[in-house]
Amino acid sequence: MVSLKVVETKSGFWYFGWFLLLLLCFVAVAFLGWQWGVVNKGYFETEIAQLQQNNQELKQQVAELSANSLNLDSREKIAQASVQQVSDDMGELQQKNNLLEKELTFYRSIMAPELDQAGLTIESLELSPVSPQEFDVVITLTQVKKQDWYLKGQLKADIEGEIDGKISKISLQSVVQEENWSNDFSFRYFQKMRARVLLPEGFTPSLIKLMAVTTDKKQKTEREFPWKLTENL
Fold first, then answer.
1. Which of 47, 170, 176, 183 has the fewest CB atoms within 10 Å, measured from its CB?
2. Residues 79 and 169 in one domain
3. Which residues make Cβ contacts (< 8 Å) with residue 207, sequence separation at least 6?
4. Interval 57-108: pLDDT, tens
5. Contact at 8 Å (CB) between 153 and 215?
6. Is 231 inside any structural domain?
7. Is there a single domain that holds both residue 99 and residue 177?
8. How far apart, in whole angstroms, are the C-alpha atoms of residue 62 and residue 69?
9. Domain count for the chain
10. 208 and 157 in one domain?
11. pTM score over 0.70
């Protein structure tokens, strides 16, 4: 016995209907998307404009902060420079004050009659380096005010030290650079005897011995100083 199977066939109108339906759905979705874009276009444009404005404001704030930072840095540098200048000025004034005090003490020692010091005196020795073996030397001789006559005489100075590990002694006059330098003195209250000396290569000075004698041999004084450099002459 033969069974029969019925096959349902769809017409072209059925397929065309489904195609038309899908096309209408696509058009509807596209239209809704377009409408959504139109409705929200102004919103996004406003948001973009606001973000651009915020970005511009932030850039301006960064620029202002950078300028303020530079100003603060400049002010700090100026303040530091001012503090350093004031410190330098104070140091210079203090140095000048110390020199004035030293000069005042020096003149008081000459002019004050109540002091026990009398007659010819070797007051001080000052040494200032010019080069490793070259020095400026200042020797100050004094007499107090109660003896106000002129003193005349000669100064003898010997520099002691070592050369090649051996103790050696050099006459100051033999190493003085000035051709017309004289060890003669003549003063009423004080005299500073200045000389520039050039020590032999390899000679290391340790002390200087001084002796001043008046021409009439009535006054004689001796004093020795360590070879110690001073800041100011």
1. 47
2. no
3. 159, 160, 161, 224, 225, 226, 227
4. 777 877 777 777 777 777 777 777 777 777 776 677 676 666 666 565 655 5
5. yes
6. no
7. no
8. 10
9. 2
10. yes
11. no
